[in-house]
Design brief:
CATH superfamily of the largest domain: Bira Bifunctional Protein, Domain 2
CATH topology of the largest domain: BirA Bifunctional Protein, domain 2
Number of helices: 14
Distance between the termini: 57 Å
Low-confidence stretches: 427-434
Number of domains: 2
Helix content: 40-55%
CATH class of the largest domain: Alpha Beta
Number of strands: 18
Structural class: alpha+beta
Strand content: 15-25%
Strand order of the largest sheet: 1-11-12-13-16-10-9-4
Amino acid sequence: MLDIRHIRDLPDQVRSALRRRGESDAAEAVDRILDLDGSRRAAITEADELKARRNEVSRTIGELKRKGEGAEDLILEMRSVGERIAALDGRIREVEEEVERILLETPNIPLPEVQEGGEADAVEVHASGTPTTHPFPALPHWELGQSLGILDLERGARISGSGFPVLRGAGARLQRILVEWMMEIHREEHGYEELLVPHLVTRETLTGTGQLPKFANDSYRTEADDLWLIPTAEVPLTNLHGGELLSAEDLPIGYVTCTPCFRREAGAAGKDTRGLLRVHQFDKVELVRLERPERSREALEELVRHAGTILDRLGLAWRVARLAAGDLGIASAMTYDLEVWAPGVDRWLEVSSCSTCTDYQARRADLRFRPAPGEKPLYLHTLNGSALALPRLVVAILETFQEEDGTVRIPRVLRDRMGTDRISGPSLSRSAAG
RNA sequence: GGAGGGGUGGCAGAACGGCUAUUGCACCGGUCUUGAAAACCGGCGUCCGAAAGGACUUGUGGGUUCGAAUCCCACCCCCUCCGCCA
């Protein structure tokens, strides 16, 4: 949520920033907000004056009663003043709700260094490793997965519908081991605290990070309790300290967790639907940071490094793109996407999205800290980044390390944990499955 | 799900429906001091206002009243016990 005072003080700056995001409607909303804000303040002034009068007279009535004197005329007058106050308060609340509605759908302001444009205008800012080209016809992961017996799309679809893959055998193990390995790196080397968090959250929580109210159709919701399945662990992690007042020594806070992510992706039907590229449920290791405002820009670079470390150690080719203003999520002020090369599908896959949301989510979720003893509380800055999203990471591993005979080498850093250096043949255990 | 207890400022903890939240600790500023501590004075939530000042604030939302932390209703959360349960 944007700061109403910022809009009030620098409306032109806000308008042009929103236009850079391609939000022409939002820019017009600025005028509407200013208009409402003006009438809100006028009504508050009027109501406050009446309340001051009521407080004063009520005090007088109390004194008169103590002295045993009558105060019928004053009580009568205050009765009508009370009615006028109630009417004004009602109007104030309506206006405030309207402003709130608009603000909740107004996106964050991009940082100055974010370039204009849309999806096609992302700028590559870093690259690592050489994209693999196999000397043989590279198979896409769904073919590898099927022939190796580690991916079962049909049965997943049977129990839940399309977009709910089943991993089995070595595929399931590979993913679990990847999670453990990534979590350890973030915990031990990057200093994040490991958390386990709820996968169902309230409407308010989802509003705190920005998914609601605008994108209700993208999430799954439980009917009976109005609890929502998280689309990313960013939601519970970022909201964790909502309503608290942290002290300066508490910051920075860095959290890492792994959760399933549930996405209806209603609008994306037909795009990237093969295999594991776009699914309704997938696991993701997520990093979230709460930072002092002056540290947040630097923290974003750290987040990218922390995610990139994983890709480097796996020996995958990857690159970083800075998204253009028009491609940012509602809460983000700046986003880097990390993409990994997948030779089987012959393209780059987004495996991480690292964003700084400046104080946008902090204002929605009420995340504050006291910069120094005696100073006023300030909204902190929130950042989040995947490190990394699993199904696509598994895709990149399968497709990058496939051999001509259809087997897949296990990345060196995972071999001890996997207990093997290769996935080969159907991994249905003959002894146990019989 | 049932019974009981409880939600007040950063924390602790008071307040017969009426002088509109006592106090302590912590913190900030000042006086004093070579410096600090102690002591003393002031401050220490949000909003409107250029300011003076005013309004709001006792989990949330309603109600009663001239006036509600206090009375009534609904809801939320925490604690204890019981039931159910991975």
